[in-house]
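PROTEIN DATA CARD
Card holder: 8916_t:CDS:1
Chain length: 84
Origin: Diversispora eburnea
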Amino acid sequence: MIITEKDKLDSIAFKDKMQTDARMCDYAKEGDEDPKEYMLMEVRDRLIGKEIIRRYDEEHGISSSWLDTDEKWKKTVNILQENG
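Structure generated from the sequence above:
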């Protein structure tokens, strides 16, 4: 598998979309609205994207703190899982 520059940029965009979705979920909850109406990505898309990044990192021996160990990221993932 060859990772292109576009793939790298897509992974950054994916992370940004995940964080945006988490913020929108918080916003929707505050207004007693359905968080799913505000999310940019479908649950399936988020899970696939996360798995692609995880596998790439594992194959290349890269430590990916934003996926699992970063507290801010954990909060983002938890919010999305609650509302996914």
